[in-house]
Amino acid sequence: MADVLMQDDLFGRLPEKRPRGVQAAAPSAEDQALAAALSPRIHLGTSTWSYPGWEGLVWAGRHSESTLAKSGLPAYAAHPLLRAVGIDRGFYRPLAASEFQRYAEQVPPGFRFTVKAPSLVTDALLRGDTGRGLQPNPLFLDPTTALQDFIEPACEGLGSTVGALVFQLSPLPAQRLAHMNEQFDRLHALLLSLPKPPVGVIAVEVRDAAWLTPDLVALLRDTGARYCLGLHPKLPPLAEQLPLLRALWPGPLVARWNLNRLHGAYGYEAAEQKYGEFREMLDPDPDTRAELARIIRATAHAGQDVFVTISNKAEGSAPLSVRALAQAVAASPS
């Protein structure tokens, strides 16, 4: 012991080791209190987690996008308000059960994932690198492909962390829009063929207003799937989608707030350029937040689960949008 003390006197104490890897930003007392005020049925989060600009909001330090994509999820899930996150990468390439399992092992109990189905199933067109449709997709809404390349691996890998398994249907080409009855029949057949997940829900999100009819309500009722509230300029505003939600009441709420309406239907690039590193809420949309908060409160009060993910392109910074939405939910309704 004396030798150790002598070494400390002669050479100084060794500096403490800095934690390695991605560390979570220290939660504020306000965020902790707000999280405690929310029902455990309410799962709010962002559309993904790999943004270096969230330093101080989510991360304790600065990290590259690739580092955050690989190693940032545990730090993200440590944030008291972030109880959900989207997995969008499977939209471009089907993921294996082992990949989903790796995500599930990095989050605490009560955390939930919203997962997009592969475009192999949800896009009526096969597209090139620029996104231009090249030819019809023979596997559009194919039940076997949906089951083997999406539902089974997601349920096996994610287990109890499944929140919403979302079939986000890409914009339909004109020839399919002209024959919507056929599209409804295809979607109905697909959903009927799928097993109900042990936890969470299967949901349908659309990009064409032509889907928003009583036929969609009927097939969702018949199959037990949910409508995913899509907040995107390609669709009518939230208030105009409420009749569809009411027709399916009660049930879990699935919502994805994708893009602020002021940018227009094709405004992702404009939003990305304007919002930079996604550290500030540059285009707040309190009206949408207030309406969404009202729906969330009512859903949770009815004993149903809520799965809401928000993009940086909604207001400028997804973590700040989650905080503001949580504040609106926790506030006493007027």
From TrEMBL:
Top-level lineage group: Bacteria
Task: Cite the Gene3D superfamilies for this sequence.
Answer: Protein of unknown function UPF0759
Extract the signal peptide range. Answer: none
Q: Which Pfam families match?
A: DUF72
Would you tell me the protein name for this molecule?
DUF72 domain-containing protein
At the highest ranks, the source species' classification is: Bacteria, Pseudomonadati, Pseudomonadota, Betaproteobacteria, Burkholderiales
